[in-house]
């Protein structure tokens, strides 16, 4: 295997499915797939990251089988290590809709929803979402999307019902970073979000070829964003994380006007030139009366994987100082690590694929800080 192997490989998924069928309980009557369904697979440098969709009730039945399944997958040619993550969404084993119940969505065939989108009492969309938050930056290249993906996965890992919207029409990265290439379907006039790693997700990247250039004028972009809000069957969510496009333009204004944003998170790197743009982002949300939940310093420092020596390649502490000057919380430092980049390329968020890593610890702390700031708590299950 090479580091370029990603999920979505049908042959890889098939052989892991075959292996999971062989991992049985002590009675020998049921296997892993009796309680779960394969959600996604990513293989990088011999490490298989496997996500299984399982109901909350069946999660306890999978736990005793997980070590056996990981050991069995690690015996496959080209794989020397395996990590299985359990995600709770659609009931595993549920039958697919009958032909005609769903149809693929195409850009030249809009959802054509005959109904009126649900709105809150204030006229804003998505009343079924408890909190909508924006992850933004004043410029590109600061790791905003990577931060947003791992934040969303971290919130889901805390037990929150989490969705994610990729609002970057020109440069969608969510499908690659989540290892998903599935096309959304339309049911009852609504787009059905793609499910990946415990998240409900929508991106223009699911609807167009990865290499296709989106040469659209502003009104078309605004129309697509409006459709992703009003014509998508978002379920009841505790939090929807929006990966905002870089800059301070029409997309940001449209989302602020159509949604009741609970807050925004600004991602920056430590150097002065990035902080200039971060200040513009802070000013934009202030003008739109959107609370800023805090600032994150990405690529804060680099630790050599060989000697563990810490080097501050882009300076250090600039984002913290900016947060203090602006009177907003500082949400933490994310290190510059090769594994973060590689996990994004492989379609397996590092907070899930390597939960004990330094990077996962930083993203987990960020997710907890955001959940605490929003006063979000996981919904209680019937057995709790």
Automatic annotation (TrEMBL):
SUPFAM superfamilies linked to this entry: Fe-S cluster assembly (FSCA) domain-like, P-loop containing nucleoside triphosphate hydrolases
GO biological process: iron-sulfur cluster assembly
Annotated InterPro entries: FSCA_dom_sf, MIP18-like, Mrp-like_CS, Mrp/NBP35_ATP-bd, NUBPL-like, P-loop_NTPase, YlxH/NBP35
MIP18 family-like domain span: 15-83
Keywords: ATP-binding, Hydrolase, Iron, Iron-sulfur, Metal-binding, Nucleotide-binding
Positions of the UniProt region annotated as Disordered: 92-123
The keyword Amino-acid biosynthesis belongs to this UniProt entry's keyword annotation: no
The keyword Signal is annotated on this UniProt entry: no
Transmembrane segment boundaries: none
Residues given in the record as ATP binding sites: 138-145
GO MF entries: 4 iron, 4 sulfur cluster binding; ATP binding; ATP hydrolysis activity; ATP-dependent FeS chaperone activity; metal ion binding
Matches recorded under Gene3D superfamilies: P-loop containing nucleotide triphosphate hydrolases
Entry superkingdom: Bacteria
PANTHER family reported for this sequence: IRON-SULFUR PROTEIN NUBPL
Its biological purpose: Binds and transfers iron-sulfur (Fe-S) clusters to target apoproteins. Can hydrolyze ATP.
Annotated family: Belongs to the Mrp/NBP35 ATP-binding proteins family. In the N-terminal section; belongs to the MIP18 family.
Subunit structure as annotated in this protein's UniProt entry: Homodimer.
Record-given protein name: Iron-sulfur cluster carrier protein
Organism: Acidomonas methanolica NBRC 104435
Taxonomy of the source species: Bacteria, Pseudomonadati, Pseudomonadota, Alphaproteobacteria, Acetobacterales
